[in-house]
Amino acid sequence: MAKPVIAVPIGDPAGVGPEITVKALASDTVKSCADCIIIGDKGIIDKAIALTNSPLKVHVCEDVSDADFSPNVLNLIDLHNIDLSSFKYGVVQAMCGQAAFDYIRKSINLAMSGKADAVATTPINKEALHAANVPFIGHTEIFGALTSTKDPLTMFETNGLRVFFLTRHLSLLQMLGQIRKAKIIECVKECMAALERLGVTEGTMAIAGLNPHCGEHGLFGWEEVNEIAPAVEELKAQGYNVAGPIGADSVFHQAAIGRYSSVLSLYHDQGHIATKTLDFERTISITNGMPILRTSVDHGTAFDIAGKNIVSEVSMIEAIRLAAKYAPFFVKK
């Protein structure tokens, strides 16, 4: 049976992306679950292979059709866009910001054309993108624009715990203004559709509470009474398998042990703390709601340790593994 083809852009060359890519591809887990096509610069990949003492041999190819998926072969689409004479690890460089964007764009093209089954991304640097005048602040915005997706949906997964987010990059004060019945209903429906596209059709989605003890019927806040519980009841009336609100101090544990198939976190840190405490390295971001499937490590470029061969590849292995896991079920729009 053919393994899914996963496109892997190497991220910002000055960060740890090239190292974790090379290390991950040498792992037995990745070899057994996926055929990877790397998008990057050969000079940077050669440096990463030497740095990590990797057994991989680079095979430069023009397209996926030219790839050699034999063991210990790293298939590389070489965009040849890094000047090694001026390159430095751990430094914001416009050249690297532009290169990272080019790698992502190529990986999206491969997936959109059906040549790759999913994309597993490595870290990029917002300052480097800005220095290169790239008009996006991060991966999600790039993927949204280049796939014509208005509002990509983020799901975290770690050790089987799946977490969606009602709100993300808002202050706590701004977040409170977003806790509305209509928004919760709309978000849950989007999350359920995303799960179905990934082949997850069984189980209950839990809606996390906002206030301590879910507000204790108004003693500690009225959001549960006025907005969250009514949203849950209406969703149930429409046939959606949901439960809640359930106290945030217990709902993530309950989902982690299998009581719920997923959790809707109401704000950024509520879900991030839960997943990253459970297993920081294996917390993977999955972007859904697009025509293509994208997974990603949930750490940054780590400029402080880039080029030192001390970064862990565990998160990258998990990102590729989950891309391969869901790719056969993912229904392309």
Structure description:
This protein has 333 residues and is α/β, with parallel strands linked by helices. The chain has two domains: 5-151 and 289-326, Isopropylmalate Dehydrogenase, CATH 3.40.718.10; 155-276, Isopropylmalate Dehydrogenase (3-Layer(aba) Sandwich). 38% of the residues lie in helices and 17% in strands. The protein contains twelve helices and twelve strands. The protein has helices at 17-25, 28-33, 42-52, 94-112, 126-131, 139-146, 172-176, 181-197, 223-237, 251-256, 268-279, 314-326, and strands spanning 5-9, 35-40, 57-60, 73-78, 118-121, 153-158, 161-165, 205-208, 242-246, 262-265, 284-288, 294-297. Strands 3-4-2-1-5-12-11-6-7-10-8-9 form a twelve-stranded mixed β-sheet, with helices on both faces. A hairpin with a 2-residue loop joins strand 6 and strand 7 (161-165). Helix 8 crosses helix 9. The chain starts with a strand and ends in a 7-residue tail after the last helix.
N- to C-terminal distance = 24 Å
Number of helices: 12
Helix content range of the residues, please?
25-40%
| Global geometry | elongated
Helices and strands: which structural class? Answer: alpha/beta
Major β-sheet annotation: 12 strands, mixed
Instruction: Work out the number of β strands.
Output: 12
**Architecture per CATH nomenclature, i.e. the level-2 architecture of the largest domain:** 3-Layer(aba) Sandwich
Overall pLDDT, averaged?
94
